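Hello,

Our lab assistant flagged a job as stuck in the queue for most of the afternoon. It eventually completed. Since we weren't sure the result was trustworthy after the delay, we are filing this so someone can double-check. Below is the sequence as submitted and the structure that was eventually returned. Let us know if re-running is recommended.
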Amino acid sequence: VDILAGGIPARPGRVADTALDPLTRQAAHPAAVPRSSDPPAPTTPATRTTHLGRHTFDDFVIGTSNRFAHAAAQAVAETPGRSYNPLFIYGDAGLGKTHLLQAVATYVNDHYPNYQVRYVSSETFMNRFVEAIRNKTLPEFKQHYREIDVLLVDDIQFMEGKEGLQEEFFHTFNSIQQAAGQIVLTSDRSPDSISTLEDRLRSRFKMGLVTHIQPPDIETRLAILHKKADVEPGGVRVPDDVLLFIAENFSENIRELEGALTRVTAYSNLNGEACTRDMALTVLNDLISNSLPLPITPALILSKTIDMYNFSHEELIGASRRRPLVTARQVAMYTFRELTDLSYPAIARE
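-- returned structure --
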């Protein structure tokens, strides 16, 4: 029996711990090519936990904003450990990063079922790391996350500034990659933009393929809405002009886009009202108003200048010629001229 650090016997082979991590499975499959250290696959597959859902590549809507990331994720899923390792996908919240991460897990589970897959958020990884230190179970923690074939970590940016956690993940990363395992990471920023990330981790994150998901264009948003409208409960028919209205007003976040459609169809279904553009405007008015930028007014410019320079309103519009106040007034005047149609006399009156 092999002995792990600390004198704790290692379990023979790798046993998937579905109680700890979802989307983990172990079984025999002719397409799988496990590493030579892998034990014979059990005759009965382990039960799959599904509370994270089973996102797939088939239900991912592809557009110009995400085509590259989708293709890279699919290539990784088809040949784990052999291409684009690690794969680093970054982009704003709600653009499909987690969907792709779970699609990789689903594909590997289905096509390589004796591969062990760990899907975890960086927050969960941190919490379990802290628990392992507290409970003196670090050898088990390390075995759980290092002796696997595919590691998928969501929101890796939450590790920034946490030196102990980054140290542990550095060794986890090296252990998996040196054993020809696959690593896929997501973040809301590129590796270079995670300010307090250790350089040795940053360089490893960049050694594979870094790909960016951008907000979807209008065609992709419409395709997403059409796909979701087909499966919305209640059987509500959503006309094309309503879908276009939603797509035009929710452009930055797919979750908000889908949430807007759900609100419209729920209102239509629960009130027995036909789904029209006017109805959608009424139902979504508060969301649309909150997403609109503030109008540029003289009062807003003065307020922002006051906040920036930490002066009172009376000081800013007063007669003092102190240099900091003069600078603040010049900035306000320049902003007035650039962002409004006011003349100098009108600005003075404001």
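-- support follow-up --
The delay was a queue issue, not a problem with the job. The result is valid. The CA atoms of residues 2 and 10 lie 6 Å apart. The chain has three domains: 1-214, 218-291, 298-349.
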